[in-house]
Amino acid sequence: MNRMTRKLGKATYQDILDAPEGMTAEIIYGALHTHPKPAPRHAVAQYELGGELRGPFTKGRGGPGGWLILSEVEVRFDSDILVPDITGWRRERLSELPETNWFEIAPDWVCEIHSPSTRKLDQIDKFEIYASFGVKHLWFVDPELRTLVAYANHDGSWMTIATLKDDDPVCVAPFDAVTFQLDDLWA
């Protein structure tokens, strides 16, 4: 099923603004989706992965630099408004931060940290939206299963490029210039 065959909801940005305090709000295929802020395992994995990447890829410390990596920012994909757990843009595509509270340039890389409340949405609807808007790389990290599955976008379709577990070394595109251990993401 795709955007053309889905029944679209009528949520607006005002619905996001009116979402309860402490909830993350997204509009996916026109429907408002809210979910609580991350649980501790999710938060640790998100924080640790961001730390592993920011030094070498944002700051150029021990790596090539050239990226902007941020956590939980709003990204507009036409009428869809998503809040990926971690998002990355190559600096040549996003040289300046927007003046708005959201980004309109599709990221080059997205990572979703699975939570029970968001897993299905991440793996189906958001997966499809990211592919159709040209996100080049997508990682799914599952702190409960201690896994990382990485995908590369080929003409709007995802191809699995890595499936890692436990303490496997992580050296995966687009961040394959450095290696870290997957178990560094777990508390």
Report Rg: 16 Å
**Beta-strand percentage range:** 25-35%
Sheet with the most strands, sense and barrel status = 6 strands, mixed
Number of helices in the DSSP assignment: 3
* Low-confidence runs: none
Distance between the termini: 37 Å
Helical content, roughly? 10-25%
Output the helix-strand order.
HEEHEEEEEEHEEEEE
Got a strand count? 13
How confident overall, as mean pLDDT? Answer: 94
Structural class: alpha+beta
Give the strand order of the largest sheet, numbering strands 1, 2, ... along the chain.
3-6-8-9-10-11
Overall body shape: globular
Explained architecture:
This protein has helices at 13-17, 40-59, 119-132; strands spanning 23-28, 31-36, 67-71, 74-77, 80-82, 86-90, 102-103, 109-113, 137-142, 147-154, 157-165, 169-170, 180-181. By secondary structure, the protein is of the alpha+beta class. The strands form 4 sheets. It has a 6-stranded mixed beta sheet, with helices on both faces. It has a 3-stranded mixed beta sheet with strand order 5-4-7, with helices on one face. It has a two-stranded antiparallel ribbon with strand order 1-2.
Write the layout of secondary structure elements.
Layout: H1 13-17, E1 23-28, E2 31-36, H2 40-59, E3 67-71, E4 74-77, E5 80-82, E6 86-90, E7 102-103, E8 109-113, H3 119-132, E9 137-142, E10 147-154, E11 157-165, E12 169-170, E13 180-181
Parallel strand pairs: 4-7, 8-9
Antiparallel strand pairs: 1-2, 3-6, 4-5, 6-8, 9-10, 10-11, 12-13
